[in-house]
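LOG
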Amino acid sequence: MMRWGILVVVSALTLAGCAGDSSPSSPSATIDHSYLPLAQGSSWTYDFGGVEQRIVTNGTATIDGSEWVKIDTYVNGEKTVTDFMRTENGISYAKSGPGQNVPEEPRQILVRNKPVGYKWSQTISFQGTPNKYDYTIRALDTTITVPAGTFSDVMAIDVLHSIPTPVGDITTDLVYFYSKSVGFLKQQTSGIINVEVVLKSYDIK
């Protein structure tokens, strides 16, 4: 199932500077919600590999002294999980809700105000295995069409997800597309998981 807090970050688990590289920093002040609007009551409906899923911002929660936006996922009208997102200093973070079979460590999923080619990475341990995510901004102000419409304010981000094994790394290549005004539009994958996710409709408050 597709959850923003997870899909947008951890593709092969359920789904991660200077122009060389950098590590994620911790959230602090100055909010910019471009590319990932989080106004309360907003909703996005996606086709996730043939399954319709609706994502809704629904309140806030304080976690470790910081405020996070609650992201509820609905499948067939039933709420399935709650995840959390937070944007500060131009960086967006996602965090899984408790009780899920995915890491709860915050992931740095989106960086604003950086040029094409900007890179960052993060390694997250899952069930004792390090999962590495390498991100690169592929394009800015590009145009794509999804069922919800055509958007020309799009940032495309390449993600390489690597899991080490005794016989070599298992890798999944992903591309995420974000509209500056609407948010997450599309996911393309290739590798051990091949699932396309597209935005069908949205209601930004």
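LOG (cont.) second protein
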Amino acid sequence: MNYNTIICKIILFFWIVNCIFLIPCSANSISDDPGTSYIQKIILQNYGIENNNFSLVQSKENLIYIANSNGIIQLDSKNSSLIKINGVTNLAVGSDNKIYVGTTNQFGVLATDSENNLVFKSLVDSVQLGMADLGQIKNVFSYKNDIIFCSDKTVYNWDGTKITILKTGNAHVELFKTNNLVYCNIQHIGLHRILGNEFKILPKGE
């Protein structure tokens, strides 16, 4: 047996071994068995929806809600639906598992109508705040059993039955949430923490 024949047999042997080990690994990597992790890329434009998103939350039922320039998209593993809302929209999931919505000159909650369709229900209209121009609701946070909506200069608290205005005035505000606590930076005043229905300035927060 010459040298070239030996080399060819060695190469053929390792090629067969590689095939034996690689084919099962490849099959496992694309398994459709329940519980197999995978990444799915969802291209919203394939559904006739703009791919411009502002906020994303997930309910306890593992439904995904995406605040999009077309409205709010509800996604499960197979289907999608669109709730029409105009403007830039921000979302939060409340302790009651409801989806709360803040948008331009409006804030509210997603609820089912008489035909069991998911629609936007305004909380502004329900309590008759009497404000024609709320501005852009730029933050929506779940805080304990309440929902906090924040515009550029005003902070509103919804406790499930009524709305309380926590802060209003000419100073700009920025809201932040960390470790289930909500903080508010009020321009020219300082950093505050929400306690109950009021802001308390933090030590050295000026």
